[in-house]
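SAMPLE LOG
Freezer: B-3
Tube label: C17
Construct: single chain, 102 aa
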Amino acid sequence: MAKDEKAAKPRPIGEILPQAEREGEKIKWNTILGNEIVIRGYEIRKSQFHDGDYALIDITLKGEECWTACSSHVVIEQLEQCADAFPVVCTPKQVKKYHTLR
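STRUCTURE (predicted):
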């Protein structure tokens, strides 16, 4: 950059990246495995780290509103199948090498 050119003013990352407001704190997916949850809604996004999508899932766990993220193709497919039925009660499980909602 030439000395006489002004450097661009840095912008907050929130202005550049899409960010949805989520209710409550983020809970790691592995923390909710085996626990009954209420799924209130979800949003599918493209992953920046690998080919494919991931879901941001709004949940209620033990009466507390929070959210989690999951890239399981099985879970994403299940969320899409019951998209018109939220809220739904389920228990996230790990079955062999994949995750599912039961």
